[in-house]
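Re: Re: ligand-bound prediction request (bumping)

Still looking for help on this. To restate: I need the protein modeled with 26Q bound, output as structure tokens. Inputs repeated here so nobody has to scroll up.
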Amino acid sequence: MFSNVKKFKDTFYKRLEMLCGKSFDESTARDQYETLGHMIREFVSNDWIATNERYLAITGKQVYYLSIEYLLGKLLRQNLINLGVEALVEEGLRELGIDLNELEELEADAGLGNGGLGRLAACFLDSIASLNLPGHGHGIRYKHGLFEQKIVDGYQVELPEQWLRSGNVWEVRKADLAVKIRFWGKVEAKMEHNRLTFHHLNAETVTAVPYDMPVIGYESKTVNTLRLWNAEPSQFPIHDDILKYKRETEMISELLYPDDTHDEGKILRLKQQYFLVSASLQSILKAYRKQHGKLDQLHEHVCIHINDTHPVLAIPELMRILMDEEGLDWEQAWNITKNTISYTNHTTLSEALEKWPIRIFQPLLPRIYMIVEEINERFCHELWDETPGDWARIAGLAIIADGYVKMAHLAIVGSFSVNGVAKLHTEILKQREMKPFYQIFPEKFNNKTNGIAHRRWLLKANPKLATFLSELIGPSWIRSAEDLSQLMNYQNDTSVLEQLESIKKENKQELAQIILEKTGVSVDSGAIFDVQVKRLHAYKRQLLNILHIMHLYNRIKEDASYSMVPRVFIFGAKASPGYYYAKKIIKLINSAAEIINHDPKVGDRMKVIFLENYRVSLAEKIFPAADVSEQISTASKEASGTGNMKFMINGALTLGTLDGANIEIRELVGDDNIFTFGLTSDEVLHYYQHGGYQSEGYYHHDYRIRQAVDQLVNGFFPGVYNEFEPIFDSLLEENDQYFVLKDFASYADTQLNVGEVFKDSMRWQKMSLANIANAGYFSSDRTIKEYAEDIWKINPL
Ligand code: 26Q
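Reply:
Sorry for the wait, this slipped through. Here it is.
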């Protein structure tokens, strides 16, 4: 049906009538979208079934990727691209008078993630399938993804997200594969046939129903599966209050929790985690038993990867199944478990490490808690044998301590591999944050620098640049991103540089149009598009950016003739609804934008734009249009960052601290092709350890800082007199924990330099070219090959 345009059109016609029960002439755009979606499903179904059959037959190792988040975005066009039928479909639809872009608009973003971690999982799925690797994703089918953000009067307002409102053509419900999950109740130990057995009594049962989504590899026969679990009441609830039971059950897959380390200990969040883990493991082991019978060689054929600690209960759950259901003893079960599980850490912020109060954990998951206790006790015994009497060490490393279960400790002890997500991050884990664990298990620790699905973030998001590159260096980069390096041959080719410039200009004009539609502000596409898009967090320092913008504004106000290269500062950020301080920063950005954008004295010299509801589909329009990529976290705090890579591959220049993967970007492009500034991570850590930083001094001695910081509280912002006091206090009363004032001068100087360099457009384009040419390393294909070879030990089919 996709073999030629005529066949496509004929099938489309017939399929539409069958599916929608109306003629083509009466059909709506949504009918057409649904029709196309169904055609793609039908088209891949053979390969999907064949891939699954192969997975049931092969004896080689397979990986299961467990993640509480998948930030997929839209799938229609990416699927068409990967199937190699995008051009044909576009053409066929055009002949039918349909614009594929308009159909694409109808698809809701699958926004089942907060940010970097969830998007990484989505990029990994693309690469695993494109590399023909036997890998399966497991997650939760949240009814509501991350909240939708509206900006009202400069404030963030959260609305429930509704991606399933018009259904989801990409999913298949597999009711026959449902499994049961047990919560609450109590555990009874009995002697049976001379061994202790455990029985979970009076449990409340929830049914987990899988919804499978095809993961289509790029021009490959592999169609992998993302299995998302839906929570439903079990058939015969023993409950007397059935409605309450139904409501509480369905709540488990009702919504994605916003990343909020400030409000910990929500019982429903723990329920979600166990729900995901128990459903996934039951399903994995069911398939495994079918193939291998017994489970005692599990670790030879299966790797279960946990994306951060959120699915760490896979460890005690696997122990439970191996012992209670399979009848293995502790040692056997433990040996299998710790050789099956691998773990990725995504944060160095110790306050963000997950821990659960025993008082919540134990009653909800009584058998799992018993197993965690036993793991802890045995681990503490080993610690004791190493350093008898060193109670402080044992308490610091224990899995259960101070009334909490420490999930990262459980993950390290119960897995065979622990990886960080960028070189610096892994070093910080080994040398500081998790040093005592590294000393005990040095062989477990390794680095896997993050990557991005370059076929989404370049091929799909930036068709103009992608086409130009393919014409210039051939299309091999689509499969082998390292081939982008051939672009280096053109670094002195003025015509190539000019074409890069004009592509960027066109992308900026498109973004300018979106900005005009969404905000009513008209921006000059000749200006520097200076962009910071990411979740709002104190450590990411959107505050540094906006304080510097206020300083530039002050400069213009003091000197009407102040000359600067025109700038459009663009922000996109969601703040966790309970993160009070982050929401203040959003209001600050919008308040500053309001003043600056409407001050006739400023003119075209600068504009400040906050784009609401930052999400995957909006990101795809922003990255191709960016000149400057703001990656300005306090050094040591950003584990990796992946937005930095998406900017780079689209030719934006990084303005960043020596943090996360910025360091590796600099290694690749060289110091001349990046703008770095600020404290190093060693300096930051030194200040934390030894003190010696006084933000007050920077406030008093730098007039630029004092002026902007005073404006937070001196009535500069009309009508919001006390609004920004918490920000003012964070900088002075609380001594500026993120070194915003300390790094200000260095940032402002570097920004001046950015402006100077931009004036020389050929120099800028040459730098931009070097960034694109070196971005191949950051393809998630490279990352996934490393996981496959070093950790998972899986081979392409
Ligand atoms: C915690 C408690 C309760 C509810 C939610 C959460 C929660 C949810 C999501 C905590 C953290 C997250 C997400 C973290 C995350 O995205 N980390 C980022 O991971 C990226 C991929 O490795 C890195 O590039 C970023 O540096 C890192 O910040």
